[in-house]
Specification:
GO terms for molecular function: ATP binding; ATP hydrolysis activity; transmembrane transporter activity. The protein is α/β, with parallel strands linked by helices. The chain has 6 helices and 10 strands, in the order βββαββαααβαβαβββ. Helices cover 30% and strands 28% of the residues. Strands 3, 5, 6, 7, 8, 9 and 10 form a 7-stranded mixed sheet that branches. A 3-stranded antiparallel sheet has the order 2-1-4, with helices on one face. α2 runs parallel beside α4, α3 crosses α4 (130-143) and α4 packs parallel to α5 (160-171). Bound molecules: adenosine-5'-triphosphate.
């Protein structure tokens, strides 16, 4: 499947942020969006995932403009139910997709194993560290059946070891879906298959990551 954006224009008040952006990502690949702080990366991601609408232009997944149903999110503000277990939080992904509780728990257990957190399945989310919580949110996104995973600064201020763990978890998405990640961290961008740079409202041609 292919998520594509054509001629996106967007601004806050009269200030243009995106000025004719072209973008595409396919399932099976990881694409990074980089660029200076405040240039509009989070805004672009919100348009790519259908959270906001462009003033002009369009975003589609295989020709379908209802992109919100095709994406799962890993956002800067980690949103989890603090008093529920790690497993219950991950199971929310498939539950929202309409799976039965039994199916959702089975999928959640598998995804927690993949991100290396099965030992924490029964712990309340409030008791796990920031880096672990980020992996919980990734497991929840992987547990949903949406074809694209969108991540906004998923490694934030975390240390290098934790960052590497999180990137490994995110790249699991490539097995079945597409990953689109906004990041400041050149090491994270370098792990992706392609990189776009947002400058002056436009995305520069993608480079092949070295
Ligand atoms: N809801 C809003 N209303 C008005 N201006 C906004 C709003 N959201 C963001 N902006 C402004 O739009 C610009 C782009 O913001 P955005 O968060 O998309 O940038 P960014 O590249 O993701 O930044 P960072 O890397 O610092 O997270 C910034 O100048 C920001 O202050």
């Amino acid at each position: 499947m292919r998520l594509s954006a054509h001629d996106l224009w967007f601004g806050y008040d009269d200030r243009p942020i995106l000025d004719g952006v072209e973008f595409s990502a396919s399932t099976g690949e990881a694409v990074a969006i980089v660029g200076p702080s405040g240039v509009g990366k989070t805004t672009l991601l919100s348009l790519l995932g259908g959270m906001q609408r462009p003033r002009t232009g369009r975003v589609e997944v295989d020709g379908d403009s209802a992109v919100g149903r095709q994406v799962s999110w890993v956002l800067q503000t980690v949103n989890v139910l603090a008093n529920r277990s790690v497993l219950d939080n991950v199971a929310l992904g498939p539950l929202v997709d309409g799976r039965s509780r039994r199916e959702a728990l089975a999928i959640a257990k598998r995804r927690l194993r993949e991100v290396g957190l099965d030992a924490l399945a029964d712990a309340p989310a409030r008791k796990v560290s920031g880096g672990e919580l980020q992996r919980v949110v990734i497991a929840r996104a992987l547990a949903s059946n949406r074809p694209f995973l969108l991540a906004d600064e998923p490694t934030g201020q975390l240390d290098r070891v934790t960052t590497d763990q999180i990137v490994e978890c995110l790249l699991l998405a490539r097995a079945e879906r597409g990953l689109i990640v906004v990041t400041h961290d050149p090491a994270v961008a370098a792990r992706c298959d392609r990189r776009y740079e947002l400058v002056d409202g436009l995305l520069r041609e993608p480079e092949v990551a070295s």
